């Protein structure tokens, strides 16, 4: 395939041999095969790179990329040539075989700059029923009512040229920062069904240090409080309640 692909799927890896096969299989099964797969590896020493080497299809491998997850995701974006970019980490996989087909149809029919759907969480070997999707608006997201699940997000590459990429100084809330920047200028289309499965385990960044993650999220949302002051005030109330609960858990 020499023409530009429709999708660029970016998968960040680091010693991911235990979970990567599910990621790869879910992409290979897609009914829409108009994609390139970009792997950004942080220096794996297990069988991760062997799995990628055996993976068929249009791919590119960026090796020994350091500097954190945000930088790895940005490296993938910079290497992408497709119209639409998705980040599907090596812990995650697509929930069904028609995900790319459904997303491509929404881009075509609604002419939007980004599309996202729901996710299911895989915890302790069990799929947890997905949360209800709240209609997205900038204010509802700024208030913490609406949420945007990273593995189920697809962004037009030209939109990232306008709003920028992930803030590489952030460790936990880089995706929230990008959704706020994007949500200010572009209405998304949503798909009210799970598009991806996210593994929640002890090694997940979002699970490993929830108090630090919440604090960084607060600092990120504070950047945008002038655009939605009432929404930020509502978020502050939610933040204080959640922090009290987290701190209570850590003292038990």
TrEMBL record:
Q: Supply the Pfam families for this chain.
A: Glycos_transf_2 (PF00535)
Protein name, per record: Glycosyltransferase
Question: CDD domains given for it?
Answer: GT_2_WfgS_like (cd06433)
Domain Glycosyltransferase 2-like per the UniProt entry, residue ranges: 8-127
């Amino acid at each position: 395939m020499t023409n530009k692909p429709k999708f660029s799927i970016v998968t960040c890896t680091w010693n991911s041999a235990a979970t990567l096969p599910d990621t790869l299989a879910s992409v290979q099964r897609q009914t829409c095969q108009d994609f390139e797969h970009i792997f950004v590896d942080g220096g794996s020493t297990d069988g991760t790179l062997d799995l990628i080497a055996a993976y068929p299809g249009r791919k590119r491998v960026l090796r020994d990329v350091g500097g954190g997850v945000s930088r790895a995701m940005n490296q993938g974006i910079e290497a992408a040539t497709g119209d639409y970019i998705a980040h599907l980490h090596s812990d995650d996989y697509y929930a069904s075989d028609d995900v790319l087909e459904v997303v491509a149809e929404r881009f075509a029919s609604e002419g939007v700059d980004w599309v996202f759907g729901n996710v299911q969480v895989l915890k302790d070997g069990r799929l947890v029923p997905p949360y209800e999707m709240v209609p997205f608006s900038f204010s509802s997201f700024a208030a913490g009512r609406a949420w945007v699940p990273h593995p189920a997000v697809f962004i037009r590459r030209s939109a990232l040229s306008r709003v920028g990429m992930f803030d590489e100084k952030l460790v936990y809330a880089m995706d929230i920062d990008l959704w706020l920047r994007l949500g200010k200028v572009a209405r998304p289309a949503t798909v009210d069904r799970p598009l991806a499965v996210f593994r929640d385990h002890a090694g997940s960044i979002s699970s490993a240090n929830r108090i630090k993650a919440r604090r960084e999220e607060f600092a990120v949302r504070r950047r945008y409080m002038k655009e939605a002051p009432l929404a930020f005030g509502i978020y502050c109330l939610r933040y204080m309640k959640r922090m009290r609960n987290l701190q209570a858990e850590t003292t038990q």
